[in-house]
Every structure is written in C-alpha cells, then in structure tokens.
Amino acid sequence: MSSPAPDLVLVGLCDGELDSMRHHPTFMTSKVGGQPDVPSRLLRHFPCCSRCASALVHVVQVYCPLEGSPYHRTLHLFACPGEACCGRSECWSVLRSQCLEADTTCRPRPQQEQPLSATDWCDSADDWGIEQQQGDDGWGENAMKQTKHETAQNGTKAEDPATVDVEMSSKLKELQLGPSENAPPCFCPYFISVVEESDLFGEDRELAHAHELLRDYEKREGIAVRELDCDEDGGGGQERYEKTKVKHGDAVFARFMKMISICPEQILRYYRGGKPLFISEPPANMPQVVSACASCGGPRTFELQLMPALVSLLRGESSELQLEFGTVLVYTCRSSCWTSGTNKAVEEFCYVQSDPDQQLFK
Length: 362
Description:
By secondary structure, the protein is α+β, with helices and mostly antiparallel strands. Among the domains are: 10-113 and 182-198 and 265-361, no CATH class; 141-174, no CATH class. The chain has five helices and eleven strands. Strands 10-5-4-3-2-6-1-7-8-9-11 form an eleven-stranded antiparallel sheet, with no helix packed on it.
C-alpha cells in the first residue's frame, strides 16, 4: 500500500487466510494478525501495556511507503487483549519501521533472534550451516566418502544412506517452527487487499446496494443524515450537517455509519494527511491530544484507522484472545523522520474510540 495522491482514500479488505506453511510474509506484506515482520537490520520488538504491563499482541501490519521517498515503510499496531485495556488508547502502540532497498538483503539475525522461525524456510535461507565443497553439493559423493572414512577410523559400521535419511526426517518432524519464546500469542493471520474508495462506486449495482443500506439504517435510527455545503465565508472548511433527531443521540456516529455504508466490510481506511472518521464526538482539544513526534519533535498527521469490521477477524487459538473497539486512529510523523543505521522502530501515536453500541450490551 503506497501513499495515495491527496484526497484519495484507500480501503483495506480481508483477502483470505495467510497459511504460514505456504506463504512467507515479509515487512512488505500488509496483513492482519500473525507475528510482526521487520527488515533484517531492525530488532523485532513487542511493546508492553502501560496499564497492566502485559506484552501487547500484534494486530495489523501495513506496508505504506511514501511517494518520492527512498525508504520502505511499514506500520505495526499492537494492543493489549485485556478486557479492561483494549478500549484505552494508552494500551495500544504503533511502531513505524523504515529501511532502504540496500537493507533488504538477507543478513544473520541478531543474537536475540536465534530460534528458528517460519521465515527461515525461504529460498534465501542458508543451507543448514553446512559449507559446500568445490564440485560438491554438500550431501554428494565427497560428503559420503568423508562419512565412510570417519566411521572406518572409529571402528564403526557406516550407516546406510537410506537410514540416515529416515533419521534426519524424524528429527525434522520434531522441530517446532514458530515465534520465539519471548513472543506473545498472536491472532490468526489474514492478507489485506487494498482498493481505492472511489472504485467502490464504480458499478450501479454496488451503488444501489449502498443506498439501500443507508435507507435501512436511516429508517432503523429514525434519522435523515444529509451533508450540507461547506461554508463559503471562511468557515475553516468544516462540514456542517443537518441537525436531526437521532435515536441514540449521536450525530457523529450517524455520519460514521453513512460513510462506511458503501463498504461495511472494510477493515482499514488509509487517508494520510486527510481527516479521520470519528465514531463518537472527539475531544475539543484533539489537536493537542495528538502528541508531537517523540523522535524529531515535529507535528504528526493522520494516516489510517482500523474499522469495526476488523473486530470479528481478531480471534486467536484461545477464546480469551480477542479485542473490542470502535475505531483506532493512527497519527504519524508528518516528515516520517528516520535515522540512518538505527535498529529500532519509531513509536507513533494512536487514539482509540469504543463503539457506542457496546454500551447497550453492558
């Protein structure tokens, strides 16, 4: 997902389950769940919850290089699955990783990353640490001669190659591929596909379906949400909406539902530099709530948000591993600052809003 042109909104959709036995995602893969993938020079880091100190679980990985930038760029969102934590902004974390093309070649993992993981089984992985001899494939004639010579010197009988293969296969079956011991449990992984929001209006059938969903919503809530023209007298470009009586008393929520009615299944909305869709009334001092970049001190800008449809995908092997939220807004450094040679990701800012309807079930 590259940074779109101004006023171009990208929508993320679930694009099928990511099978770790068949697919080998990298930091250039946009996905839900799984373990975070980072460039080889960066340390894989799991932040902790500032409230309960538990390790945060990886929620979403978004590959989002900026137009005109030489850097690859990836955002990782983490959250605490604790029931009392997941709806709090301070219990979420977003990390930004960047690297140059020259940094994407395979290198030995840092000392902390010694345990094997599924990504070590790619074409660029090493040959089990066995050096090849010139004119030999590592398991060919020269290797077999060496084995027979050593066993003869020790007075033992050389094992049959077939027996060696069987023993090697049994040992391989005992290998447990997966995250290191320090990695927390993870959500089931899914690919994310990206479409332009404007493309969702392409077919009359889809547009008619969107209008039908909107009419059903308005009928159910007893409202008629209609955008009015922006002020032309220098009103700051703020949108105004017809003040109608909403059953749940939340016109912001009504607007949110209207905007996503064209594609209710969207799990992510990307609009760097644009305006977020609030699901409930934001704080009056929202510009002050969004802190400055901790790395360079510069301002942050809105980049993306997680949508309610994502909640149903966030399920782990344990029924206790799940999240509840309305929307999660991500703000990143406007200049996307990065220090060359660093091995740590930059922490950005996220703001969590709960779903107003959740209060009806508590």
